[in-house]
Specification:
Blueprint (H helix, E strand, L loop, with lengths): L4 H4 L12 E5 L6 E5 L13 E3 H5 L10 H9 L14 E2 L3 E2 L4 E5 L4 E3 L7 E4 L3 E7 L2 E6 L2 E5 L7 E4 L5 E7 L5 E3 L6 E5 L7 E3 L5 E4 L8 E3 L6 E4 L7 E3 L6 E4 L7 E7 L2 E6 L4 E5 L7 E3 L5 E5 L4 E4 L1
Parallel strand pairs: 3-14, 4-7, 6-8, 7-11, 8-12, 13-15, 14-16, 15-17, 16-18, 17-19, 18-20, 19-21, 20-24, 21-25
Antiparallel strand pairs: 1-2, 5-6, 9-10, 10-11, 12-13, 22-23, 23-24, 25-26, 26-27
């Protein structure tokens, strides 16, 4: 069973592990913190039912270079942001078959792939500006056009640069469960299902993690790189673990007026919204991850001073 205290610290040692919420009363009886409990799940590397990126892709991970442009694009994207596509210049592109797998090249203009095979390499010759999954498709805006993959769910989308270096991987699940990206060191965009609670692990070189739309309580666990956690007022009662100063928590559906309280205890920051939902974030460093709100403002909690400051 997934043990949240392994990733969130002692603050969750006494929390009830369920797929719903748990209520924890602190020593101050006037304050009741409602926190999201972890998704009940068993994790075994490569076991049936777990969405291991290695197992799904069927290849060994390789040394990769993180694309700062890709990371910046995802960080700036709102929840479920869908880049526009100019239908008059959109063309469906057939795959070019190689000895290993189908491959694609994108340099400019608007391009749509309708028959993408999971794990096929996309050589990217443009700079990404925005990225999102929506309506079963993956959208990537660049400085010279829009790239779209239709029927993209449950497929690992692989981007490389013209030198053959791994830029990023993207994956969207349709069924709830474990999505494990820890064996990869390139930037990853991982989105959970919209129908249930997901447990998602980031890779080692930066990831964007989103539990999916809906009210399910998801658990997003950061890695060694700079991670982006997408959550919010309407995204259920999410747990975010291993969040560090370098990371971003993208709350794209709320501003300060939507936040009713923040409670900090034993390295755990609980942010409460006016609809009753709560985001629980582990924060063991002096400065927390940056909480980026819908209006563009960003805030960090300073554990040394016991207060919030502009990020």
């Amino acid at each position: 069973m997934f043990n949240p205290s392994e990733y969130l610290g002692s603050a969750y040692d006494e929390a009830e592990v369920t797929t719903t919420s748990a209520t924890e009363t602190t020593e101050d009886t006037s304050t009741t913190e409602t926190v999201a409990a972890a998704a009940t799940s068993t994790y075994t590397s490569g076991s049936s039912g777990n969405k291991s990126l290695d197992a799904l892709l069927g290849i060994q991970s390789s040394t990769a270079t993180t694309s700062n442009a890709f990371l910046t694009a995802v960080a700036n994207a709102g929840v479920n942001t869908v880049p526009s596509v100019n239908s008059t210049t959109t063309n469906t592109v057939a795959a070019t078959t190689t000895t290993n797998s189908a491959s694609y090249v994108y340099n400019s203009g608007d391009m749509v792939i309708s028959d993408y095979t999971s794990g096929a390499v996309i050589t990217l010759g443009a700079t990404p500006t925005d990225a999102a999954f929506a309506n079963g498709s993956f959208f990537l805006s660049t400085d010279s056009g829009t790239f779209v993959i239709q029927n993209a769910a449950n497929k690992i989308i692989v981007f490389e640069d013209k030198s053959g270096d791994d830029i990023a991987k993207a994956y969207k699940a349709t069924t709830a469960g474990v999505i494990d990206g820890r064996s990869y060191d390139g930037f990853e965009v991982i989105e959970g299902s919209d129908a249930g609670a997901d447990l998602i692990f980031a890779g080692s070189d930066g990831s964007s993690l989103y539990g999916g739309s809906g009210s399910a309580s998801d658990s997003l666990i950061g890695g060694a790189g700079t991670d982006i956690f997408v959550s919010g007022k309407y995204q259920g009662m999410d747990i975010i673990g291993n969040a560090e100063t370098k990371d971003i928590i993208n709350i794209g559906d709320a501003t300060l007026s939507d936040i009713t309280a923040t409670n900090v205890q034993n390295g755990l920051i609980a942010v409460s919204f006016n609809n009753g939902n709560v985001i629980a974030v582990s924060s063991s460093q002096s400065l927390s991850a940056a909480f980026m709100l819908a209006d563009g403002s960003a805030w960090r909690y300073n554990h040394a001073t016991g207060g919030w400051q502009s990020a």
